[in-house]
Write a structure and sequence with these properties.
By secondary structure, the chain is an alpha+beta fold. The chain has one domain: Nuclear Transport Factor 2, Chain: A. It has three helices and seven strands, in the order βααββαββββ. The chain has a seven-stranded mixed sheet. A hairpin with a 2-residue loop joins strand 6 and strand 7. Helix 1 runs antiparallel to helix 2. The mean pLDDT is 93.
């Protein structure tokens, strides 16, 4: 049921556009837009610990959480017709900080009631390690 991993094309662009809406909400401090993109059962796995939808959206209570960002090295794994795993590299600067961080992110999107929602995200700090296989 799992298809090949896509590194380009319209389907990858579709999920990158969805993911970008989440990042844009973080830049704009738009809690409502963030809530709209996440499933009620959203689970985030971050270096700081686990996060629910309320936690993710709550970081926007005081305004923007991200000052600027860039997404790169994206790939997509489709899981049937109702789920897709988007993995990519995110470089970003938090609001109020001059320092850039780099995370490798895997974001699960699932179709719920005809709408694609982000149900899971895991952020892993990039450390410069390479895979050997």
């Amino acid at each position: 049921m799992t298809q090949a991993i896509l590194t380009n094309g319209a389907l990858l662009e579709k999920f990158l556009a969805l993911e970008t809406r989440v990042w844009d909400a973080m830049v704009l401090g738009d809690r409502q837009a963030d809530e709209h993109m996440l499933s009620d059962s959203f689970l985030g796995v971050y270096p700081s610990g686990f996060a629910s939808k309320a936690d993710h959206c709550g970081q926007l209570q005081e305004g923007p959480a991200i000052a600027e960002y860039e997404l790169s090295s994206a790939c997509l794994r489709c899981i049937g017709n109702t789920a897709a795993l988007l993995s990519y590299r995110a470089s970003f600067r938090s609001s109020g900080s001059a320092d850039w961080k780099v995370m490798l992110i895997s974001s699960l999107w699932e179709k719920e009631g005809g709408t694609w929602l982000n149900t899971f995200s895991q952020d892993t700090p990039e450390t410069g390690c390479t895979m050997h296989g």
